[in-house]
Amino acid sequence: MSDLRDLYQEVILDHHKRPRNCRQIEEASCHVQGYNPLCGDKCTVYVKVDGDRIRDVSFEGSGCAISTASASMMTESLKGKTRAEAEELFRGFQEMVTERNLEAEAPEALGKLAVFAGVRQYPARIKCATLAWHTLHAALEGSKKPVSTE
Predict the structure, then answer these.
(1) Angle formed by the axes of helices 2-17 and 65-78, to 10°?
(2) DSSP run (H or E) holding 43
(3) SS3 55
(4) Counting Cβ atoms within 10 Å, is residue 32 exposed (0-12), middle (13-18) or buried (19+)?
(5) Domain segments of the chain: what residues?
(6) S-S: 19 plus which of 23, 51, 72, 98, CB 3.0-4.6 Å?
(7) Strand partners of residue 35
């Protein structure tokens, strides 16, 4: 189990140090700002939608390792997905990090995002992990209002 935990920490640190898709999309279909007042994490999520499919997704912002890695991995996992598939990933990720059963397995559909399952053991970090996801959800819903984790 320790080896697996070390691997998960390595993946999170890699995405924190070298975040993927950390940029503005000039012709984004939608974008929304998100803020976690508890620890100061900030992000803006940009989404380019073509019909019902997410063609591109990115983020900009500043935050802790969990917040940045979550946004980075979220963008990688959503490119090419439909809105419905993105919504399903959002719900699955949310359930995984908030599940009270600490022994519960991460849903297989989440793939690499399972590295965040351990966050549920640290309630203060859940908002860090979910900030980009809530911001994405608001963007896909067409909201223009900033998202707050409070």
Answers:
(1) 80
(2) strand 41-50
(3) strand
(4) buried
(5) 2-148
(6) 72
(7) 42, 148
